Structures are given as C-alpha cells and as structure tokens.
Amino acid sequence: MIEKEYYKDFRHNYIILKVLDFSIDMYQCKMITGNKIGGLLACQERHINGDMLLYYEITSKQSLAYLYENSHIDCRQLRKFFVQLKMVWEGLSRYLLDERNLLLNPEYIYVDVETQELFFIYYPCETEEKYITSLLEFFANKVDAEDNEAVEITYKMLELVEKEQFVLDEVLQWFEQDYEVSGETKAERFDNHEYQKSFQEDEQEEEAPEITADSGKLNCLSGRAAFISLFTGAAISGILCYIIYGYQLTETEKIYCYAGIFMAGILLLAGGIGLLYEKFGRKSPFLRNKPVILGKREDEGDEKPFQKTMVCESVQEKLNQSYGNTVFIPWVESSENKLYGVGKGNKNHIDLSRLPITVGKLAGSVDMVITDQSISRRHVKFAREGNRIYMTDLNSTNGTFKNGLRLEPNTSEVLEPGDEIKLGKLKFIYR
Looking at the chain, which terminus has fewer C-beta neighbours within 10 angstroms, N or C? Predict the structure, then answer.
C-alpha cells in the first residue's frame, strides 16, 4: 500500500509518496530526481525523520480520475493516451528504468488541462497493484458506450491483461498508428518534445495552413528582396544613364548600356510590385494567408468529455470573446444551496443544487466559469454525499479557504450554513 499525502508551499503543489525499504544509493531514485525525463512529473527527494519521501510536483495539473469523473472517454482520447504512454516507456528505457514502476492507477496520472499533456509518476518500489489492470478497468467504466470502436478495443486490452499477454505495440496497431521515425530513434524524438506535436495534431483543424519556422523567414526575406531589387535597379539605371550622357561611346557600347538599362528596369518593376504587395496585398483578405496562433487549442469541432458549462450572465459576453465560439448554457435554478459572492466586484453566485460541479476559469473544462485572475483553470469541486456537500480543492494556485483555513490540495471539507468560503481572492457565504 502506497502512503501518500498532499502538500502546498508558496507557489507549488506536490503529491508526496513515501519510499519503503529504500537505499541511499538507490539507482532509480537518483535517475528520476537527477534527470528531467519527458512525460514524468518532476520529482525531488527529501529525508525527514528517517523517512525517504518523494515530492512530485502537480501544480496546475489534474488527476485522470478527477478529470473524467463525470465524463466519458472516446477512441480518439484512448489513442492519444497510449501514444504518449509508449513515448514515456521509450524514454524510460534510455535510463534503464523498468516501465512497470509507472503508477498507472488513474489517481496517479496527471493531465495539464490546457495542453492535455499527460504526466506519470515513477515509483521506485514494488507495489501490490496489478500491472496496468486498474487503468484498463477505469477506461472500461469511463468509455463512451456509443463509441463501438473504443468499447471493443478496451475490452480486448482487458482480455490480454488477464491472459498476461498485453503488448503495447500490438495495441497501438489497433489504433493504426505508425511510430517509425526516419533518421532518428523514437526516444530521441521524445526528448526533442516532438511527441507533443504528434499528441496535439488532432486538436488542430485539418484545413489550418502549416506554419513553420522557415515560413516566417520567407515572409521577411520577400520584403527585403523587393527592396534590394528596387534599389539595385535604380542604381544601375542611374549609373548607365550617366555614362551614356557623360561620355562619348561607340554604337556597340551604347547598345550594351541600353540593354543594361532595360534589365535594370525589369529589376525596378519587380521591386516595385514586391513592395506594393508587402504594403497592400497582405492586408487584403483575398491575398493573405489565414493567420494561425501557434499553440492555440481548437475547442470547436471536437467533442469534449465534460458536462455542459454554466456561467454567470454578467460575464457571458466577455467569455464569448475570450474563448472563441464556445456556447455557454446557463442552468442556474433557484435553490437555497448557494454560495453568494460578497465584497466589491464579486457578483458571482455558485448554485449547488445540481452536483457535482467544478469551478474554474477554463471554459470547456469546468461546469461553471469564473474569469477572475486569482481563480485557477480548475479550481474547486463541489459534490454531495448523502445530505452533506463537500468542497475539494483541485490543486489551485491561490488556494481554497474555509473560514480562513486553507484546504490542502485534493482534500475535502464539509460545507455548513454560514461558512465563509474564499476561492483565490473572491469571498462567498454558503447559505
């Protein structure tokens, strides 16, 4: 049984795992704490009261279990997961680390909710947990029943695990992925963060123009070349005209000069057209390329595994501008179970009549959006157990407070009437 706890310092959130039967010279600990291995959570080793503790940083990340608690997983998301899992395994092999030490329980797999990048925990001790079984059971419970391909692949993987015949390469073939990279090994591709590009390709529209480093250089060089062509043509024309009218030339020499002036005129014409295009053509919607913001996530067109989003009407218009074309559907109903915003400028009210809900500022990833800068992308979760309502901090940066006491990351507290709740710098009263 793994002993875990959560800890928050001034700026960072950690999940702490205790190492059992450790050795000071343990090779695996030194590898994960001394190297930045792609796909693993950053890890620090600390010795407190004779115990060896591993601090894994989980700032701004959510566990897979929390992220898909109330949503389904489709075949596309399954494929992305196993693509990155394969990359992580290959990265571990470079450091002679056993991939079976990855904690594949969804509780220990973290996701950056903005980039959708996965991060794993490497635990250097043997555990009683069955290899990959808990993960596949989680997928079986969360898979979208209407996605026949995802259901079929999930249960085929479970059958392989039960027969102890699970091979990740075979699973990847089911997803029709080709992982051969010419000119470099897959591990090198991973360390160069190329996997992030392949992992996020499905988030980009197929029609979006390809943006490369060379394309920016070409745009810059085209304007510079037009100016040089114009300047060179003008200089050559001026020099040849001066020679013709300033010196006595033979007919043959005059012919050469006139030919040079003709060529210089072509340079002048090309340069002029180039400069006119740079000045006016790029402003035309018919001539310019569609601008692409690098790193932007396309939310439209992809089904997201989250509940419908609700927002306060006071920030509806601002949210539509901030998050593109996402449609927000308010579903606030009259109820006594509410968090009422207090203080100047806080007009937000959180309705707790329909639970569970998550609150944060990242539209599409939470059930209620609050755009205040002190609110994290996924800040807090409210859930009901019996007649009690629980509040859980979701690794928020600025914290969740109950009556002045800060909640530890991923810990829950019962709400009582009259409690003062603080999310970041926003205060609420529970009634």
Answer: N
